[in-house]
Structures are given as C-alpha cells and as structure tokens.
Design a protein that fits this description.
Layout: H1 5-8, H2 11-15, E1 24-26, E2 33-36, H3 38-57, H4 60-84, E3 88-91, E4 97-98, E5 102-110, E6 117-124, E7 127-133, E8 138-146, E9 151-153, E10 158-162, E11 169-175, E12 181-184, E13 196-198, E14 215-221, H5 233-237, E15 243-248, E16 253-258, H6 267-284, E17 288-292, E18 295-300, H7 303-315
Parallel strand pairs: 4-12, 16-17
Antiparallel strand pairs: 1-3, 2-11, 3-5, 5-8, 6-7, 6-10, 9-12, 10-11, 13-16, 14-15, 17-18
C-alpha cells in the first residue's frame, strides 16, 4: 500500500516504523534505511583529506587510492541493504507472563531466498541480540523484557540493523506489530486461608462422582490439562490408552476463589492472591471457580480454565 508524501517524510517512520502490522512484515526498499555510521563519517573525512592532498601535490597514485577507497565505501551500501532485504519477520506466541517477572518478546525471522546474512542485530527497549542467518532458514529470536504491570502489553518498536560488511554504513528497519501480550497479575501468597464450599448444600454427606481422594471409582478418558498424577499408568503400560483415575468422596466440595475472601486487601493485592490460588489449585489438580464483582466462572480445571481465570484477573477494571 503506497504511503502519502507526508508519511514518507515523517521522522517517526525512520525511528518508530510504519503502522503496526498484525501478522508479518517483509523488509523491502521502503522499510530499510541507510546512513553512515561514526566510522563511516570518519572515513569520509579521511577520503576528503586524501583528495585534497592528491590535488595539491598532483599525485596520481593518491587519486587512485582515494577513488578506490570511496568506491569500496559506496559499494558497501548495496551489501548492507541486501543483508536485510527480503527477510520476513513475524511475532510468535509468547509464554504466559506475570507482572514483575522477566519475559521474552519472541519473533521469527525467515530467510526465503538462497542468501546468507551476516552480523544482524535485533533490538527492543535497549536489549540487543546479534545473529547470522543461513540459507532458507527460520530463525527464532528472543529478547528479554521486564513486565511491570498486568493487562495488555503492546511491544514497542523492534529494530533490525546491520553494518555489514565494512561497518561504514548502518542499515536499519524499525518494525511495529499489532499483537499485544497478556500479562497476568503477580502471584503472591498473602497468607489468607483458602475456603472450601460445598457444591450443593442439599447433597452434603451423599456420594458424588466429583473428583475426590477417598475411594477409587473407576477410569475416565484423560483430558488435556489434568494433573499428570491422576493418570492411570498401569492402563497406559498395558496399551489400553490414556486414562485418569476417578474417585468418589463422601462430600463433594468445590473451591471458590472468592473476591470477598480478600476484602481486607488492596485491589492489586487481591488480584495477586487470587492469581496465586488459581495456580496452586491447578497444580494440585483441584476443581475451582472464580468469583469477582460481576464475573463468575464455574468450577472446573485444566489449562484452558486456568487461562480463562487468569485473563479475568489480568483485565479486571482495565479498559
């Protein structure tokens, strides 16, 4: 899509990049910029002095070396451009992130042609990584980042740059992606007791098919996200398939992670405590539900349920 003249000349385009992209970005002549480096400016002064001296003394060999050096420097602009041109950059999935922790911005660089790329730098918020790319390669790159707040985090500009081959010119390409990262609250145990509530008060004392730890009740197909300790390894070893143990309990109880249980805490402390309980219940293989003001998630377990609960905590009262 062609750019308007005002956007072509915008200083922000050279430092922050063009409008954010949803999927991937291919580096072309419109996205790659080249300017002399500090060493390049020093070389330009040297070439100028050599030219003045050659003219002053009418030295033919001085002219030869001056123009040869200038031609080599000029030719390096083409190689710097080609070192970035054609690369395809896309953000990849970021693992679960928690406020106060160090995560990573993950992206993939694809070399679609038959060229090798050398000494390419990737930078994001002062973090720098240098790498080479071989022919027809998908290269995953990770840049560390400190997540300070919960909610949606939108990555800043990712800049790819190179000074290959001579270091006298720097070619760079600033890239923006429209793929925010969800940051969960920081899990903190404040010492509050976790409360258990009967699933159905009329069924107290009756047997239930809900998960418990009393009597073995049979097998059921294993579901993704269940605790591995519930797997029946004997059935698996007998090549009967992947099953999990099911128990019957005298009293069926579910765990409600309730906002009111943390009423004495400040907002962020409440969310951190609830986050800690979610992770702890999931690690123990328990069924749990989440109650926030205006929000209720029914008791369940598994990775998807955990992420649903953490998402509600991460976005609570966020625009």
């Amino acid at each position: 899509m062609p750019l308007a003249l005002s956007k072509h000349l915008s200083l922000k385009r050279f430092t922050k990049g063009e409008a954010a992209q949803q999927t991937h970005i291919k580096l072309n002549h419109r996205r790659i910029f080249i300017l002399p480096s500090k060493d390049g400016l020093t070389l330009a002064i040297v070439i100028l002095l050599m030219l003045v001296a050659s003219i002053n003394y009418n030295n033919s060999m001085g002219f030869v070396f001056t123009f040869l050096l200038a031609a080599a420097a000029q030719a390096s602009t083409l190689y710097s451009f080609k070192n970035l041109s054609g690369l395809i950059v896309s953000l990849s999935k970021t693992p679960d992130c928690y406020a106060g922790s160090t995560g990573h911005i993950n992206f993939i660089i694809k070399e679609p042609g038959e060229r090798e790329r050398w000494a390419i730098h990737a930078s994001h918020l002062g973090q720098l990584k240098t790498f080479d790319i071989t022919k027809d390669l998908l290269l995953p790159v990770k840049l560390p980042i400190q997540f300070s707040h919960r909610g949606w985090y939108t990555p800043s500009t990712i800049t790819l740059s190179t000074s290959f081959p001579f270091g006298v010119f720097r070619a760079w390409s600033p890239l923006l992606f429209k793929q925010p990262i969800l940051v969960y609250p920081q899990p903190i145990d404040t010492g509050l007791a976790l409360e258990f509530y009967p699933l159905n008060k009329e069924q107290n004392g009756l047997q239930s098919s809900q998960l418990g730890t009393d009597d073995f009740a049979g097998l059921k197909p294993y579901q993704l996200g269940q605790n591995y300790r519930q797997i029946n390894w004997k059935a698996f070893a007998a090549e009967k398939g992947l099953f999990s143990n099911e128990f019957s309990a005298e009293q069926s109880a579910s765990i409600w992670l309730n906002w009111q249980s943390c009423h004495q805490l400040a907002l962020e402390e409440k969310l951190s405590q609830l986050c800690f309980w979610v992770l702890n219940c999931e690690a123990e293989g328990l069924k749990y539900g989440l109650r926030l003001p205006g929000i209720e998630l029914a008791p369940s377990h598994g990775i998807e349920h955990q992420r649903a609960c953490l998402k509600e905590l991460a976005l609570y009262e966020h625009a």
